[in-house]
Amino acid sequence: MYNKYKYAAHPGMGARARAIVQRGVAAIEFALIFPVFFLMLYGIINYAMIFMAQQSLTLAAEEGARAALRYTLVDVDRGTAACATVTPLVSWLVHADQCQPPTPAPCAALSSARCITVKVTYPYSTYPLVPPLPGMSAALPATLGSAATVQID
After folding, report:
1. Distance between the two ends of the chain, CA-based, in angstroms?
2. Is the dihedral of CA 79, 80, 83, 89 positive or negative?
3. pLDDT tens for each residue of 109-137
């Protein structure tokens, strides 16, 4: 005889019978929700690493510009001091671009003054800190970078 209540909980069923009918529902719910939670956690970790790298590049550029400002009057020494300050700050980013000693140039706001701009970049699409999931590379930046400018005259 066919039991129409075999696969559905019925109000007249006892607690034990309802538990038997519900067996496996938690596993199915977990299987449906886990990918969503995993993608959320992955996104949080990935973007946290991107923000951390960006902040590190910003700090390195700012400190390099400060080093160029407080160094000697010789322009070559200013650029060398900037690079000497930048390099250890981004050393944990193994593939960060090697520092090219900046040279003074006319400031954008006041052409009679000279400024030094320290630039630091990291090719994130080539060397991601967290391996991207398939299809996620479009949502990630190609390059991280920062620049800081100081007026030396």
Report:
1. 98
2. negative
3. 888 899 999 999 999 999 999 998 888 88
In a domain, 145, yes or no: yes
Predicted confidence band of residue 3 (pLDDT cuts 50, 70, 90): low
Angle between helices 75-89 and 25-69 (to 10 degrees): 160
- Whether 5 is covered by a domain: the verdict is no
Domain residues for 34?
15-151
3-state secondary structure of 62: helix
Q: Is residue 46 within 8 Å of residue 130, measured between CB atoms?
A: yes
Supply 8's token pair: 């559905």
Q: Domain for residue 10, yes or no?
A: no
d(CA 127, CA 119): 19
Give me the mean pLDDT over the 12-35 stretch.
79
- 89 inside domain: yes
